[in-house]
Design brief:
Length: 515
């Protein structure tokens, strides 16, 4: 291997020893930005070539200082979990550092005062030629704060491989904390195609933490060190349950395409046929430009008077929305944990959800009625059942509160203590469950089919638009031909020729003055 090509030309790395030699000779702070230039569009190729490199081995130190990386700390489930983990780790006696892409904003979740926050250059603004700026900031942040362990809670970005290399070449273990379903990588048609490469890059992490056994069964094929965690219960069981005295359905989430709010409108269109005074409260921030989409669809479905867009709410105010509601509705195609579902259960709301097989909160939970994806009539029927039968609703609500109480006893401290003390977990002890594995592949194929269906629908919509444009062009062509015929007839008429002859002297005088 010719290491003289570090500054100019492509680096030829064929095995882990090549990588170790580069790191030893030039230093990671020079090598990694160079690798970003060469492997930005094919990072998994690099990951496979350097797998097992000695320079990526963690230094065996006691974990006193923990850093967690997340894009921002604004409104959202991942952001709230990030905040809650910093609290937990402080209680465990750790020094805690939060690293974000975005500067603090007024609506960010409040951090404990002992948590230090550092902002580094965002991966959204840097590419292969400029990664060195981000890498340098990340490296210096970890060194200056004497970080012993990193939890990387933002599991998708084009810079991920190079961020992980920056961390691991410092001898620091790094866990990827994946807070979504594995189906995201097969379902979301708005993800850049380069993100399909991400699971292949995950072997570079020391380990992966996910939120369900079903997800673990998938991720173990990409990293041998897998742990299944529970997110902190943000809302303990309330002293009193919601009264459940009306016909109000709560849908608390970002009003954005990935949360499928339009599906809630279709369900309401069916529900009001059975319960004419039913109301839907949509509580959460609205994506720019999406409010008009919701209002237009509500108008088309004749449910405008049954829908309330309530906007974003501060965390402390959410309790009253659960208390004034009589049922909870979840329409997402994918969720990692769903904090809102946990809060609904804690308040004693009966819940209706499209089937999400990886969702721990819904697993074997009689408080959650699971419906086949996109079966709006069945979802509406389930809502009507719990809104009308109050005995059933209260019984379900009590079961939900018991579920949250049981989950609250989960050993969060013990889990994270094990993470920090035993970075290299041998997950081969994770025994494959036949029925669960069957469900995994079934869900994988189902979500991929849905992904293809979404593309087909979008393509069909574009064809409709194209056909409309072609028809409009044809109509205009016909009109032009008709006008040309009229003009031709006018120009060929005797009266037109006579008029032209009589006005010829006047036109000649006009032209003389104009010139």
């Amino acid at each position: 291997m010719d290491c003289s090509m570090l500054e100019d030309g492509c680096i030829n790395i064929g095995n882990p020893q090549d990588f170790d030699h580069l790191i030893e000779k030039y230093g990671a702070e020079r090598v990694i930005p160079r690798l970003a230039i060469d492997f930005w569009s094919k990072p998994s190729t690099l990951v496979n070539r350097i797998d097992g490199a000695k320079s990526l081995q963690p230094i065996s130190n006691e974990t006193n200082s923990v850093a967690i990386f997340f894009h921002s700390l604004g409104i959202g489930g991942g952001e709230r979990v990030t905040r809650d983990l910093t609290r937990l780790w402080l209680d465990m006696g750790k020094e805690v550092l939060l690293i974000t892409n975005k500067e603090p904003e007024i609506n960010d979740y409040a951090l404990p005062s002992q948590v230090k926050r550092v902002v580094i250059p965002s991966f959204f603004h840097y590419g292969r030629e400029t990664y060195w700026t981000r890498g340098k900031a990340l490296r210096e942040t970890l060194i200056d704060n004497k970080v012993d362990y990193v939890v990387f809670a933002h599991w998708f970005s084009e810079a991920l491989t190079f961020d992980l290399l920056t961390i691991r070449t410092l001898g620091i273990p790094v866990q990827l904390f994946i807070q979504t379903s594995f189906t995201q990588f097969f379902l979301d048609k708005d993800l850049p195609s380069i993100h399909a490469d991400l699971p292949l890059q995950y072997k570079l992490a020391t380990g992966i933490i996910c939120l369900s056994e079903l997800d673990a069964l998938f991720w173990i094929h990409f990293n041998s060190n897998i742990r299944v965690a529970q997110n902190p219960i943000t809302c303990p069981v309330t002293k009193t349950a919601a009264p459940l005295s009306g016909h109000t359905v709560l849908w608390p989430a970002r009003v954005a395409p990935d949360k499928c709010p339009v599906k809630a409108l279709y369900i309401m269109a069916e529900l009001v046929k059975m319960i004419p005074d039913a109301q839907l409260l949509m509580v959460g921030p609205i994506d720019p430009g999406y409010e008009e989409v919701i209002l237009q669809k509500a108008h088309e479905l004749h449910v405008t008077k049954h829908i309330q867009l309530c906007g974003p709410q501060i965390e402390s105010a959410m309790g009253r929305w659960y208390e004034k509601s009589d049922a909870f509705l979840l329409t997402s195609r994918r969720e990692g944990w769903c904090l809102a579902l946990g809060e609904a259960l804690a308040h004693g709301l009966p819940c209706v959800s499209f089937d999400l097989p990886n969702l721990t909160l819904a697993e074997q939970n009689p408080a959650v009625l699971t419906i086949e994806q996109d079966n709006y009539k069945a979802a509406a029927k389930a809502l009507a059942q719990v809104l009308i039968d109050k005995n059933l609703a209260h019984a379900m609500g009590e079961k939900g509160r018991q579920k949250i109480a049981a989950l609250s006893n989960w050993d969060y401290r013990g889990f994270w203590l094990d993470v920090f003390q035993n970075a290299q977990l041998d997950s081969k002890r994770l025994i494959s469950n036949g029925s669960r594995e069957s469900r995994l592949w079934s869900e994988l194929l189902s979500t991929y089919r849905q992904h293809l269906s979404d593309i087909e629908n979008e393509t069909a919509s574009l064809h409709v638009t194209l056909n409309g444009c072609q028809e409009a062009i044809h109509d205009k062509d016909v009109l032009i031909h008709e006008l040309e015929d009229v003009i031709s007839k006018i120009e060929g008429s005797i009266s037109f020729r006579l008029g032209r002859a009589l006005t010829k002297p006047l036109r000649a005088i006009r032209d003389l003055f104009l010139h």
